[in-house]
Specification:
The chain is α+β, with helices and mostly antiparallel strands and 390 residues long. 22% of the residues lie in helices and 26% in strands.
Length: 390
């Protein structure tokens, strides 16, 4: 039976990290090893001659998300990108990076790092998105929101993707901080283009459990443990926004679903999640913990596999009806048709004379057309033809 610790113990306490004594850097400690590209706090737009699509219906895109405890240590970024390469990830979302400010940089091994952190030089929280070499060509724009949220928009072959990387307050954290987090998350989601494939991922500090009664639109039945307060908030958020919690959809052993382990190894929970909008639910092929990845964190790397599954675009088939004029070759049918037309025409003419009307040409034409249509319907009937539209 899983137990819920009151907090994540010392390994998850958000303590500040001191400046590296060897370098004295207060910005990312490995910034001397990378090319700094832009660190303003505004939305970034990338204009490239070569455009690369991340998502397509033919290839699988590998996403990862990981609370790494900190990237503010010498050599830590290199460790993370090495594991990213080992698991062939195209995109990695990082929680608790502890980098301050916001910006974009390229590593010595050509990964692109987008990051968003605190503005007060306190090395707490922080989020980042790391793009594999080549993947950055599909980056359309990105925006830092806070030390707990950031977003990026990527170009896909058939649909674009909006990524939102998260680091939510802990379950026993300040209620006001939780409210601010979900308000910012809601605001960011509402500004995403409505036709995008939307992925929200990161350390949500939320246990959603396995009981999806009344919540089957927001989650599956393969979660772990019992729902906590943060889990209720997350499920409610997903229900309101037609999002699905991916890690609850797939039947795996618990060791491939539990994302966090306490220092004593006894308490384990599923608190890191990936959500996808319900429209693209079938495009999410798998969500799974990779226990072999190691950067000295109490969280495991979680990977997700996405391949676009496009809805059928078969053209709609409609039935069109035509008068079966071929029946007029039969003498009896033809005779009846002639009588029908004559009688209807005489009746129409008599009505006009009684009313003393000299109707305009268009009105007369409509009456004559109706006359022939009714006569044809009565005498020859219809034949049906299929017509493809669209």
């Amino acid at each position: 039976m899983l137990t819920t610790p009151t907090h994540k113990n010392i390994n998850v306490t958000e303590t500040a990290t001191k400046k590296n004594s060897a370098t004295g850097y207060s910005s990312p400690p490995e910034s001397h090893l990378v090319t700094r590209m832009n660190d303003s706090g505004e939305s970034r737009k990338e204009t490239t001659d070569r455009k690369m699509e991340v998502l397509s219906a033919k290839t699988k895109t590998r996403f990862g998300f990981w609370n790494v405890r900190t990237m503010y240590e010498m050599g830590k970024l290199a460790q993370i990108t090495a594991e990213m390469g080992r698991y062939s990830l195209h995109i990695l979302g990082v929680s608790e990076s502890r980098w301050t400010g916001s910006g974009k940089m390229k590593t010595s091994t050509a990964e692109t790092v987008l990051y968003s952190g605190r503005e007060d030089d306190q090395h707490h929280e922080g989020v980042a998105i790391i793009l594999r070499r080549g993947t950055e060509k599909s980056l359309m724009q990105w925006k830092p929101v806070s030390s707990r949220l950031m977003s990026a928009r990527m170009r896909g072959r058939h649909v674009n993707i909006t990524l939102i990387q998260c680091y939510a307050p802990t379950n026993d954290g300040d209620e006001e901080a939780k409210d601010v987090f979900y308000e910012q998350l809601q605001s960011k989601l509402e500004t995403a283009p409505r036709h995008d494939l939307i992925v929200i991922m990161g350390d949500l500090n939320a246990k959603v459990g396995s009981n999806n009664t009344h919540h089957d639109r927001a989650m599956g039945s393969h979660g772990c443990g019992a729902m906590n307060d943060n889990g209720e908030c997350l499920v409610e958020f997903c229900t309101l926004n037609n999002m699905v919690i991916g890690g609850t959809l797939f039947s795996h052993r618990d060791i491939h679903k539990l994302t966090w382990c306490s220092p004593n190894g006894r308490d384990k929970n599923q608190i890191d999640h990936l959500m996808i909008n319900g429209t693209w639910r079938r495009s999410l092929l798998d969500v799974k913990v990779k226990r072999g990845a190691d950067v000295g964190s109490d969280h495991h790397l979680v990977t997700a596999l996405i391949r676009l599954k496009l809805q059928s675009t078969d053209r709609k088939t409609t039935m069109r009806k035509h008068f079966d004029v071929s029946r007029l070759r039969y003498t009896k049918v033809k005779a009846v048709f002639v009588v029908q037309v004559r009688n209807r025409f005489q009746a129409l003419q008599a009505l006009d004379e009684e009313a003393g009307r000299a109707d305009e040409t268009n009105k007369q034409w409509e009456q004559v057309a109706s006359l022939y249509s009714k006569s044809s319907e009565a005498c020859v009937g219809y034949k049906w033809k299929k017509k493809k539209s669209g």
